[in-house]
């Protein structure tokens, strides 16, 4: 899954990276600890123009009656993306990229909550496949635009940390993914091994666990504390 990530580039830098026009109007900024429901930058393409837009992380389907009817839909599984009602419409017509310097992950069975950062060794921004939705709140004229990261089954070193991972697209697939005229995307949902071979996974500070912590130091390698030794048996059977 992807529950925290990093955007260490300003919107103007993202616009250059993705050959897009910055339309964020100051609504997003560098964030070293992005958490659900924050305003985040996405890349969309409409009318032949690619732009960077600010949206809320946590998709609200167009047919939802209210915004907070349950946990935010921050992830969309690739295996059910085109069939699950919450995401099917967006998968066909409202796809985007979520720029990320990397994402944080935790081993599900680690009681220490040791975070790991998955990122490119050269620091270049990744393009996480994503979908978005424009939900119109009752009585309002302005829609609330929200998004979700597409995730897939992890493999290799990534699988040693967590069984799921974001679907990171190579630059060669960006245009196809953003193409509004393309409604069938099954062929784009297979992860490209070359993209993941360019990643490194490093332990980082447990400061990441507190969503209020937000500074560049969160990206630095920090060797994890040793796992606690098994407690001695105090009483026999």
Automatic annotation (TrEMBL):
GO molecular function: lyase activity; peptidase activity; single-stranded DNA binding
Domain of life: Bacteria
EC top class named in words: hydrolase
Keywords, in A-Z order: Covalent protein-DNA linkage, DNA damage, DNA-binding, Hydrolase, Lyase, Protease
A GO BP entry: proteolysis
Pfam families on file: SRAP
Gene3D superfamilies, A to Z: SOS response associated peptidase-like
Entry EC number(s): 3.4.-.-
Family affiliation: Belongs to the SOS response-associated peptidase family.
Record protein name field: Abasic site processing protein
Protein source organism: Saccharopolyspora rectivirgula
Source taxonomy: Bacteria, Bacillati, Actinomycetota, Actinomycetes, Pseudonocardiales
